[in-house]
Automatic annotation (TrEMBL):
The active site is at residue 127. Substrate binds at residues 125-127, 162, 169-171, 222, 243, 249-252. Its EC number is 2.7.1.11. PROSITE patterns: PHOSPHOFRUCTOKINASE (PS00433). This is ATP-dependent 6-phosphofructokinase. ATP binds at residues 11, 72-73, 102-105. Gene3D superfamilies: 3.40.50.450, Phosphofructokinase domain (3.40.50.460). It holds the Pfam family PFK. The keyword Iron-sulfur does not apply. It comes from Ammoniphilus resinae. ADP binds at residues 21-25, 154, 185-187, 211, 213-215. InterPro entries: ATP_PFK (IPR022953), ATP_PFK_prok-type (IPR012003), PFKA_ATP_prok (IPR012828), Phosphofructokinase_CS (IPR015912), Phosphofructokinase_dom (IPR000023), PKF_sf (IPR035966). It is found in: Cytoplasm. Allosterically activated by ADP and other diphosphonucleosides, and allosterically inhibited by phosphoenolpyruvate.
């Protein structure tokens, strides 16, 4: 193995840059030529390779987003798109590809490996919805961003004695909602992994109200419904003045947390070592504090599981 390439794909996540840095620097440390692919799989099909040196990843460890840019490519889902990408990799004499992204990106990487090309995945998404790892790169920063935002909203909630419904990202997973909801002491946390029981939400609000609590925070994961649907239902049943904040894409931005930089650095270096050891079609993960790797196919078979003990903890603490 002499030449390797790295790309970022799908929604960007804080920590992708330190992961790119780790891939490039570990690759060079191991005597490889490293190339970056711009604009994810879309760029791969066009042969958008750029040579990376030590300086090309200088001063990025603390930056959000991805210096390689990212894309969600429909064309790469097709057989023709995949063959085009393989041709470009072969023309550039690349021997291995590292893909930083979510499960959709790994399905793409798997297609290349099925066609004989070595690929390794690094989980990079704020959603934390990937099997085979306890944490994805970007999740910790996103949770911290949400917590910071809700702490600010709480000031207004308390000053105006209002109920606030905060809608957070996470696609079909409730991890961001659960972790941030627990960390801000939300009265209710609404996640796709649990039935949304409006009677329970209202009962908890009224119970708080009775003991003099005049403001409340409810966190809802986008995978359940829109925040304003919850707000409308609350206002109609309780008469409490309720407002909605949709945090949106600010959850994907910002300087990566120390934890995200740490796992990005570990996973990036590990991906290079796995390629050099002859692995392909596997994703790097962090399980119980240990770096592991598992086949894409295996990870795809199992559904990501949220730690429901945190949900019950949050409920018991916000009575
Ligand atoms: O997967 C990351 C994520 O931010 C999800 O939480 C969200 O549902 C989705 O991407 C939004 O995608 P887009 O930026 O393409 O609108």
């Amino acid at each position: 193995m002499k030449k390797v390439a790295v790309l970022t794909s799908g929604g960007d996540a804080p920590g992708m840059n330190p992961a790119i840095r780790a891939v490039v620097r570990r690759g060079i440390f191991q005597g490889l030529d490293v190339f970056g692919v711009q604009h994810g799989f879309e760029g791969l099909m066009k042969g958008n390779f750029i040579s990376m040196d030590l300086g090309s990843v200088g001063d990025i460890i603390h930056r959000g987003g991805t210096i390689l840019r990212s894309a969600r490519s429909e064309r790469f889902r097709t057989e023709e798109g995949q063959i085009e990408a393989l041709q470009k990799l072969n023309e550039a004499e690349i021997d291995g590809l590292i893909v930083i992204g979510g499960d959709g990106s790994f399905r793409g990487a798997e297609k290349l490996t099925e066609k004989g090309f070595p690929t390794i995945g690094i989980p990079g998404t704020i959603d934390n919805d990937i099997c085979g790892t306890d944490y994805t790169i970007g999740f910790d920063t996103a949770v911290n961003t949400v917590v910071e935002a809700i702490d600010k909203i709480r000031d207004t909630a308390s000053s105006h004695e209002r109920t606030y419904v905060i809608e957070v990202m996470g696609r079909d997973a409730g991890d961001i909602a659960l972790w941030s909801g627990l960390c801000v002491g939300a009265e209710s946390i609404i996640i796709p992994e649990e039935v949304c029981d409006m009677d329970d939400i209202v009962a908890r609000l009224e119970q708080g109200n009775k003991r003099g609590k005049k403001h409340s925070i409810i966190v809802v994961a986008e995978g359940v419904c829109r925040g304003d649907e919850i707000a409308k239902a609350i206002e109609q049943t309780t008469g409490l003045e309720t407002r909605v904040t949709v945090l949106g894409h600010l959850q994907r931005g910002g300087s990566p947390s120390a934890f995200d930089r740490m796992i990005a650095s570990q996973m990036g270096a590990k991906a290079i070592d796995l390629l050099l050891d002859g692995h392909k079609g596997v994703m790097v993960g962090l399980k119980g504090g240990n770096l592991i790797h598992s086949p894409f196919a295996e990870a795809a078979k199992v559904q990501h599981k949220l730690d429901m003990s945190l949900y019950h903890l949050a409920r018991s603490l916000s009575i």
